[in-house]
Specification:
By secondary structure, the chain is mainly alpha-helical. Helices cover about 80% and strands about 0% of the residues. Keywords: Signal.
């Protein structure tokens, strides 16, 4: 009997986790849809808004410190309009700090 209960327990746990993920996605869809309706968006504008809105929540993964550093250094290099070897040297220096 114990052998049968363990797989059933694992199966129940799997379904409960999937149910939570589906609920979170459904909640996000409801929120984005309500926002689009409140803004009276129609057609292509609504599609674009919904796409952006739904993607905004999918960035739940936080960037690693290295990724944040890379983003900061890249933005600084772009602001300074560095190109080629100058940009490579700047990026290398910036990332070492």
């Amino acid at each position: 009997m114990t052998i049968v209960r363990i797989p059933l327990l694992a199966l129940a746990l799997l379904f409960s986790v999937q149910g939570f993920a589906a609920t979170a996605q459904q909640d996000k869809m409801k929120t984005c849809n309500a926002d689009a309706t409140a803004k009276a968006l129609k057609g292509d504008e609504r599609k674009a808004f919904m796409s952006t809105c739904l993607k905004a929540g999918s960035d739940t993964k936080a960037m690693t410190p290295q990724q944040e550093k890379m983003k900061t250094c890249n933005a600084a290099a772009t602001t300074k309009e560095l190109k080629g070897d100058e940009r490579k040297a700047f990026m290398s220096n910036c990332l070492k700090k």
